[in-house]
Design brief:
Elements: H1 2-33, E1 45-51, H2 64-79, H3 84-91, E2 97-101, H4 111-124, E3 128-132, H5 138-148, E4 155-156, E5 170-173, E6 176-180, E7 184-186, H6 188-194, H7 227-232, E8 237-248, E9 261-262, E10 266-270, H8 273-284, H9 298-305, E11 317-323
Parallel strand pairs: 1-11, 2-3, 2-5, 3-4, 5-8, 6-8
Antiparallel strand pairs: 1-10, 6-7, 8-9, 8-10
Helix pairs in contact: 2-3, 2-4, 4-5
């Protein structure tokens, strides 16, 4: 009886497969007869959102092992691999000098996020890590160092972010998300402007320009920031891990102070800088308001439609959510 049932199921699968093939062939032929070759569906950008259920918040810091678990879950899910080191190797090679720009002093990333990423890359055995921390506080640096012990890497502090003029075979970009008068809401794309090779002020305004320092006029709209990943880092392998363990829901003097923090308890992963920012913005707007000065979607959509740096349409972004 079981053998007969198995045979019937096999026959049904074969029938469905043949039927499915015929339907698809007919549809394709119909499209050709209608005057054009059927276009394949445009590939979607992929974003992974990892959120913890843990009770964290002001006065309740997130445990380091939990951050490590969240990063491992995100990187493996994004790469489609079960082994964490194989997943990291999808984006970063052992022979690489890896650029690691991190959020500036206006709202520092959670030290545990940076430490977890640095330790994972050390385990992978990367050739070099270029970690720009010029605007990070001494307290933040000590927290990262304490978490890593004798494995703490060297920080580059000589100039703003400090990595733009170095060889970076790959990038692991570690921004935060915050209320910001220059971008509406600041995340990864604005950070690209800050570690651009020609200097940050070239890409804080409406269009790319060449100015070695702030000219008193640049600094509105961030419309040009998408030019940087689309051009300066076009061929560089990129991984973005947006720290949304907490977001800066308000700011004073460009700084997102702790009294405005909202704990969304999440990390956002993508190889697409535009898609990562678009999903992060959608999450931010559920818990906080942007700066009223600018439309926070403006620079994200410009990065997509004008500079082709990635995907800004949520309908074209494949978002997978994981809870730990």
């Amino acid at each position: 009886m079981e053998l007969e049932l198995g045979n019937r199921m096999d026959e049904r699968r074969q029938t469905l497969s043949r039927r499915d093939f015929m339907v698809r062939s007919t549809l394709t032929a119909g499209a050709v007869l209608a005057g054009g070759i059927a276009e394949a569906e445009a590939p979607k950008a992929k974003v992974i959102v990892v959120t913890t259920k843990a009770d964290i918040g002001a006065g309740k810091p997130i445990p380091f092992p939990l951050v490590q678990q969240m990063i491992e879950k995100g990187v493996t899910a994004l790469a489609g691999k079960s082994d964490p080191m194989q997943a990291w190797a999808t984006y970063v090679r052992a022979s690489d000098s890896v650029g690691l720009p991190t959020a500036g002093g206006q709202m520092e990333s959670i030290p545990e996020v940076n430490a977890a990423v640095y330790l994972a890359l050390m385990k992978l055995g990367v050739n070099k890590m270029n970690i720009g921390t010029h605007r990070m506080s001494s307290t933040w640096k000590k927290s990262v160092t304490d978490l890593m012990g004798d494995k703490a890497p060297q920080f580059i502090t000589g100039k703003l972010f400090g990595i733009a003029d170095l060889t970076n075979d790959s990038l692991v970009v570690l921004p935060t998300v915050k209320h910001h008068d220059v971008a509406g809401v600041s995340a990864g794309l604005k950070l690209y402007a800050c570690f651009s090779k020609k200097g940050p002020w070239n890409y804080h305004g409406e269009t790319p320009k060449e100015d070695p320092r702030w000219d008193g006029k640049s600094g509105g709209s961030m419309g040009a920031c998408g030019w940087v990943p689309a051009n300066e880092y076009k061929t560089t392998r990129k991984l973005h891990i947006i720290d949304m363990i907490r977001v800066g829901g308000s700011s004073r003097g460009f700084t997102a102070w702790p009294d405005g923090w909202v704990y969304t308890k999440s990390l956002v992963f993508s190889t697409d800088p535009v898609a990562a920012d678009r999903v992060a913005l959608d999450m931010y707007l559920k818990v906080a308001q942007p700066s009223g000065r600018l439309d926070p979607l403006y620079h994200i959509e410009r990065a997509d439609k004008e500079y082709k740096a990635g995907v800004s349409d949520l309908a074209k972004i494949d978002v997978r959510r994981i809870t730990v």
